[in-house]
Amino acid sequence: MKTVLIDIQGIKKYYKVRGEILARERASVKAIDGVSLRIYRGETLGLVGESGCGKSTLARLILRLDLPTEGNILFEGEDIFKLSGTDLKGYRKKVQIIFQDPYASLNPRRTAGSTIGEPLLINDINDPKGRALEVARIMDIVGLTREQRDRYPHEFSGGQRQRIGIARAIILKPQLIVADEPVSALDVSIQAQILNLLKDLQKEFNLTYMFISHDLSVVRHVSDRIAVMHFGKIVELADNQELYERPLHPYTIELLSAVPVTDPGRKRRRLMQEGEITGTGDGPGRCTFYRRCPARLEICNKNEPVLKDRGEGHFVACHREG
Amino acid sequence: MGMLLEIKDLSTYFNTEYGVVKAVDRVDLAIDEGDTLGVVGESGCGKTVLALSIMRLIPSPPGKIVSGSVVFNRVDLLKLDNGNMRRIRGKDISMVFQEPMTSLNPVLRIGDQITEIIRLHMGLGRREAVNRAMEMLSLVGMPSPETIVRNYPHQLSGGMRQRVMIAMALCCSPKLMLADEPTTALDVTIQAQILELIGKLKKDTGAAVILITHDLGVIAEAAEHVAVMYTGQVVEYASVESLFSRPLHPYTVGLMESIPKIDAAGGRDEYLKVIPGMVPSLHNLPQGCTFQDRCPHTMQICREEEPQLKEHLPGHKVHCWLY
User: Which of the residues A93, B57, B81, B183 has the least number of beta carbons within 10 Å of its own beta carbon?
Assistant: First the structure.
């Protein structure tokens, strides 16, 4: 039986944009505009979307690095935005992040061992000797050698740095790992090594992943379920196989058709709308994809579609699929 | 179709504090008029240095083109004086850089940046140059070019900036365009638009394109011929059909196998095949073949002697002792 690990309920995050000094009304950017999503224990939920669609903002909210404008996130039934003190510290032990850029996310003046072991120190786990043993054990698991413990980030390659970031994320035995574009900065041959490592770790520690990526091939490879985001909203959510074989939302279809395939004989016909992806700025009550949608209806201009189940856990927010 | 560019035995070295780095090592390549040559490889394999060597933009010191020739239209670019090279650079050969965010001048209007090239190379007056710039902007699919020419780069999105870069590269009707990872910084839907645009403009203007990328998918869609680079050398060269249907070099095979495929769901137990280890440091490359430590077929000879790039199938060359 699937149990819900994290339950995101109608979350919204608006950022105020500073306008003219005396302007009365300030504009706001709706980074996340009403997202509800459940992540089950032990699954990998893939989150795809283009830059600026709110993927990383959602990650920041889950990690409680930011507070929402509206909505709740329940982790094992508890509202994470009501936590404080020791409870909050306890939550942070259970939820960890792997960052995109292994060059920017490590402290250049700390050795690999000290970066990996810091979470233990902060949470006062073990004595120094025990911590050193644990660091060595985790380094071994992620494929780093013990001799590398005293080296600094600049002495490692991109793939190895990402292994350090992963080691730091798993050392507290978290339940949920948010991986924000963990392989985007890596070369193809190294990317495969890291993806395999993430799969191994998931089995070994029974981890739940939220895997954020703009690369639809990578997401297809790792995910059980996939959510597609567009302008701060989830427009489609389905099982891996279902989403790629029967995409329903016009945006998902467009995204899939845009991915270059490694088969020169099969040049895909792209379903591409001309024009830029502009901000919503359309005012409320209109589908965010309206202006680019090849299949828009009259109702799309007046009524914003909501995410509805079309059977077997395939959710889509589109009037055509009503 | 005639040969447009022929690179022979090109080597570009960099002097660093740890010794000499052979960033481009004895590369032979040719490109016909109107052809698209894809150059694929991982970071540090010498793709960008190859492009900069063709443009003679290698910062010197520390870099230096130590040998070889780059014959463009029967003229060896490496033997030209700076003045003549400047007349070719930006006009007959142009370049699109990877980062549209950093390769435009942030304090100049788009129009000024484009007209600079036009006035310099085509000798047009200000008014005519602006008209030409607007013409180019609409050619690359920019809406309302008369507004865009007055905009600054920060007012445009990434995809728009890349279109401006392409408009700049095309405004003097080049015979060859070097595109260094032109879509890497962009979203997939924008990437698809840009690739389509490059393909269309190539057809309209007859320019040849050298497309540098690390993405085999982009190569499969946009290129006609492919050169695979590893540690500064071309390890395989073929037509795009031949390369994807019969990859020969173990590195090419490994690269293709290590990419997740969009048309196959990866189950819990689906692992990607990997190329073990990592790219060796260019400071101390092993003797013999540079891929020896990562190769599943290493033989005695691979550790002793370096293979040569040889034709194994018609038009399909490989740099490996297996063949």
Answer: B81
Helices (H), chain B: 47-54, 82-88, 110-122, 126-139, 145-148, 158-170, 188-205, 216-222, 240-245, 250-257, 300-304
Q: Which residues of A touch B274 (CB under 8 A)?
A: 189, 192-193, 196
Q: CA Rg, chain B, in Å?
A: 21
Which A residues 222-251 touch B at CB under 8 Å?
Answer: 222, 240-241, 244
How far away is chain A from the Cα of B76, in angstroms, using its nearest Cα?
A: 33
Which residues from B are below 8 Å from A259, CB to CB? 188, 217, 262
User: pLDDT tens-digit profile of B126-152?
Assistant: 999 999 999 889 888 888 889 999 999
A182-188 average pLDDT score: 86
Dist. CA A193–CA B42, nearest whole Å:
15
Contact B193 A272 (CB under 8 A): yes
H-helix or E-strand spanning residue A66: none
pTM of the predicted protein model: 0.86
- By the CB < 8 Å criterion, does B185 face chain A? no
For the stretch B285-318, pLDDT in tens is 888 999 999 999 999 999 999 999 999 999 999 9
d(CA B38, CA B223): 5
Domains in chain B: boundaries: 3-92+172-319
Q: Chain B, 248-267: which have a CB under 8 Å from a chain A CB?
A: 254-256, 258-266
> For residue A279, is pLDDT > 90?
no
What are the structural domain ranges in chain A?
Answer: 4-230
Phi-psi region of A41 (alpha: psi -120 to 50; beta: other; left: phi over 0): beta
- Determine contact, residues B58/B231, Cβ cutoff 8 Å: no
Candidates B188, B257, B282, partner chain A, best to mutate (most A CBs within 10 A) = B188
CATH superfamily for domain A4-230: P-loop containing nucleotide triphosphate hydrolases (3.40.50.300)
Fold of the B3-92+172-319 domain: Rossmann fold (3.40.50)
ipTM: 0.81
Q: Is B220 in contact with A195 (Cβ distance < 8 A)? A: no
Rounded Cα distance, A35 and A58, in Å = 9
The answer to whether the CB atoms of A244 and B265 lie below 8 A apart is yes
Enumerate residues 8 to 47 of chain B having a beta carbon within 8 A of any beta carbon in chain A: 42-43
- pLDDT tens, A71-93? 999 999 999 999 999 999 999 99
Averaged pLDDT for residues A214-239: 93
pLDDT score, position B26: 93
Nearest to B42 among A188, A263, A275 (CB): A188
